[in-house]
Design a protein that fits this description.
This protein is an alpha+beta fold. The chain contains four helices and ten strands; from the N terminus they run αβββαββαβββββα.
């Protein structure tokens, strides 16, 4: 190959890469939020993040080996009345687990033993947020243990004095490939305000919670929990 031919081939490759980048950019109509984390194999890489506009909801679709953002709740999973305007995804396991757990994170709960972590925080055009944190366990036994720890964490906030915010009774979820429990959340005046769910599919576990969202029916949370469990089971 002559030097001139080599230069021409490099030019063609650059043009193809540029064209592909322009095409990808044309598909993304929302802002990128951004974060970094380690993959299941321990190699650091950039995770895709973005702000989803309600008029153009986009799917969070970049996955890490074993567990990634595609396994989390997506914009199309929300029921009528929840219009997402932003989503921040991370693969660090350092997001707070629930409104009940305070500062505890999935990395704390698993003692850094997970092979991968993934989390998302969704914001809406009205009050309320949705948080989801997931981990991939090295064994099914470890996943069952982490699931039990998450359930115990939620149950700690079921028995509260009258007039206090609390979680309600557990309701069972079951789909092909996964199981879980969801709990409505009640304000001090007894009104339903979101809820939380603990989910497991094989070696994957997750907790997902809708906060600050008043709903007429506690089963509003069931739909979100079911969608999350289906994603986790992919």
């Amino acid at each position: 190959m002559t030097e001139n031919q080599a230069v021409q081939q490099k030019s063609v490759r650059r043009n193809r890469v540029a064209a592909a980048a322009c095409f990808a950019a044309s598909l993304i109509t929302v802002s990128v939020v951004g974060a970094q984390s380690a993959t299941a194999g321990g190699a650091a890489h950039s995770a895709a993040h973005r702000t989803a506009v309600a008029a153009h909801p986009a799917v969070v679709a970049v996955a890490a080996p074993g567990l990634g953002s595609a396994d989390l709740v997506q914009s199309e999973d929300f029921q009528q009345g929840l219009n997402p305007v932003g989503a921040t995804v991370a693969l660090t396991g350092r997001q707070g687990l629930s409104a009940c757990s305070g500062e505890e994170t999935m990395r704390d709960l698993t003692k850094d033993k997970a092979t991968a972590y993934a989390s998302v925080t969704w914001t809406f055009d009205t009050d309320g947020r949705l948080f989801e944190s997931a981990a991939s366990a090295p064994t099914k036994t470890a996943a069952v243990t982490w699931e039990k720890q998450l359930v115990a964490l939620v149950q700690d906030c079921q028995d509260e004095p009258a007039g206090h915010w609390h979680y309600g009774a557990a309701h069972t979820l079951a789909i092909t490939g996964g199981t879980g429990r969801w709990y409505p959340a009640y304000n001090g005046d007894g009104t339903v305000s979101g809820g939380v769910a603990v989910l497991r599919s094989g070696t994957r576990v997750a907790i997902v919670e809708l906060t600050g969202r008043r709903t007429d029916a506690p089963t509003y949370v069931e739909g979100i929990a079911t969608a999350a469990l289906n994603r986790l089971s992919f």
